[in-house]
Every structure is written in structure tokens, then in C-alpha cells.
Specification:
This protein is α/β, with parallel strands linked by helices. The chain has a single domain, classed as 3-Layer(aba) Sandwich (Molybdenum Cofactor Biosythetic Enzyme, Chain A), CATH 3.40.980.10. Helix content is 45%, strand content 19%. The protein contains seven helices and six strands; from the N terminus they run βααβαβαβαββαα. A six-stranded mixed beta sheet has the order 2-1-3-6-5-4, with helices on both faces. β5 and β6 form a beta hairpin. α2 crosses α6 and α3 crosses α4. The longest helix is centred in the last third of the chain and has 23 residues.
């Protein structure tokens, strides 16, 4: 699978703070033997986030875009709103599973406004901005991502997961 990793952070985009979440996700993606096709850091600006997501989806070479940051309650946390402007179909089970798993670790998980959805043939998933939380959330959903991509692609073999009893 081919990934894009988009870090959303005012301070990191200005070079005031090193991006820690993007590299943590890249490492986790590579640990799963998946490919990182493209990365970027943008400010907490709805237009910048939206435009980057659209551009990456239009490349046609990225299966999954992971965003990190901008999913909380702060006034500049607009990643979910930008994502909702881009996706054509929602995938609510993904953020529901992430929040459920995260609640076992921290009560703050209920403050996540992360969303997930599909644009054309790309799955977009919002992750938290904390490196630890971003990787924990990715690990929660990792077991279903290959099947999700197969389904989005219309892969004829995708139905095998339904009959094999795989969880």
C-alpha cells in the first residue's frame, strides 16, 4: 500500500518546532512493509489542508492519506472540516474504532473530532497530532487497511476476507 503523510501544524510549518508526528507515522508505515509516497507539513489552515488532500488524491498513486494534527477543540483545529470538504463518502467506523481503543488509554480520546472518508480511490484518515497517539491510532486500524484498499479498488479478491473468517 502507498501512503501520504500530511502533518498539520502552524509551528512545524513555520519551522518553529520539528515535526515529530510525521516521522513517527512514516516509521510505523515502513514497519508494516508499506510505502510512503509523499509527505508534507502545512499550517492549520482549512484551504491549505483541503488543497493538499485534493492534490494528493488526484495523483492516483496514493491509497491512503494519513493526516496528523488539528483534530481537537482548539480554534485552529480544522483538519476534520477540511477533510469533510474533500471526501465523497464517509468511513465512520475507522474514527469510531480509534476513539474506542484510545479511550482505554486516555479520557482525552473523547475530545477527538477525527474523521475518515474516501475520495475517488484514496482513503483519508485523520489522526491525532501527538506522535504517540498517532501511532497508537494507526496500529488500531492497521489490520483492516489492506482490505479497505482492496474494496476501494474494486479488487475481485476482496470478498475472500468476508468468507475466510479473518477478523
Amino acid at each position: 500500500m502507498r501512503f501520504g503523510v500530511l502533518t498539520v501544524s502552524d509551528r512545524s510549518s513555520k519551522g518553529e518546532r520539528a515535526d515529530a508526528s510525521g516521522p513517527a507515522l512514516i516509521s510505523a508505515i515502513r514497519d508494516n512493509k508499506w510505502i510512503v509516497e509523499i509527505t508534507a507539513v502545512v499550517s492549520d489552515d482549512r484551504d491549505s489542508i483541503r488543497d493538499t488532500l485534493i492534490k494528493w488524491c488526484n495523483l492516483g498513486s496514493i491509497d491512503i492519506i494519513l493526516t496528523t494534527g488539528g483534530t481537537g477543540f482548539a480554534p485552529r483545529d480544522v483538519t476534520p472540516e477540511a477533510t469533510l470538504q474533500v471526501v465523497e463518502r464517509l468511513a465512520p467506523g475507522i474514527p469510531e474504532a480509534m476513539r474506542q481503543a484510545s479511550l482505554a488509554i486516555t479520557r482525552h480520546a473523547m475530545l477527538s473530532r477525527a474523521v475518515a472518508g474516501i475520495r475517488a480511490s484514496t482513503l483519508i484518515i485523520n489522526l491525532p497530532g501527538s506522535p504517540k497517539a498517532a501511532v497508537e491510532n494507526l496500529n488500531t486500524i492497521a489490520p483492516v487497511l489492506e482490505h479497505a484498499v482492496e474494496l476501494i479498488r474494486g479488487d475481485a479478491n476482496s470478498e475472500n476476507h468476508h468468507t475466510s473468517g479473518n477478523l
